[in-house]
Amino acid sequence: MTRHLLDRLIQSAVVLAVMSFVIYGLMGLMPGDPVDLMISANPKITSEDAERLRALYGLDKPLIERYANWLGAALGGDFGFSRLHAKPVFEVLIPALGNTVVLLGASFALSLLIALPSGIWAATRPYSKTDYTVNLLAFAGISVPPFWLALLLIIVFAVLLGVLPAGGMGTVGAEGLWDTLKHLVLPVATITIASVGGHTRYMRAAMIETLRQDYIRTARAKGLPESRVVLGHALRNALIPVVTIIALDFGTLFSGALITETIFSYPGMGKLIFDAIMGNDFNLALIALLFATVLTLVGNLLADIAYVSLDPRISYGKVRS
What we know:
The chain is an all-alpha fold. It has 2 domains: 87 residues, no CATH class; 217 residues, MetI-like (MetI-like fold, Orthogonal Bundle), CATH 1.10.3720.10. Helix content is 75%, strand content 1%. It is built from 13 helices and 2 strands, in the order ααααββααααααααα. Strands 1-2 form a two-stranded antiparallel sheet. β1 and β2 form a beta hairpin. The two termini are 18 Å apart.
């Protein structure tokens, strides 16, 4: 197991290095640079001033050389400053990350709490009215565009009924947990409804496939209660493919939900990355995207560990003869 973890860490480091170069290169190929924005904001800047600024920021050097300079500084712990916020990158990143963890963490947990039992319930009653109802609701959740759903919830609960705020993180002059929770209800509901259908479908398909296995028929032939057959024998094996999907969603959990955060004016990672890219804030956008990549790799590593816990037949050690 230790050898496997070391191999995965090395692979993750290689992937991260490649992704850093790809992201840096794509941003470097975008039209315009921070100096162009300075010129548009201050027409008095001359072409000579612009050239001096580009030399000062290293923007006059080839892309490979700029990347090497950035990588050397990043390995030394210097991730640069955010041009839009005039602060070190991490001082801008951490608050947005905390907001996203609250929003998407609650949505993710609520989605799994609804999807996993619903998928198991439908799989144990295949092709029944219950199964068709769960499938219909799952397909409806998958098919509804998140931006349309967010606008619909705002119109109904904020405009027509007036029981919930339309956006933001808090009311001016109001403090406390209750006010924060009220502002989270609509964005959490939007993301949960949009994601619960997919998780339900994955859980249902995995459970149906597992319930067809020979060892399940053997357990039933021994007279075990159906609840023990489903929860004690089938569930652990059915969770293995579902864990893979959850691991892939782990990176999304921290990279933010751009559409939902924009509609509800929620200052999370998705909106931060979008604003940084549109504002040519390369340092902030690059670190934020790489951070999401790191967490995706961590999610896949945690999934590998979960496989061993769910199925004792899986081993990352040496094969014994």
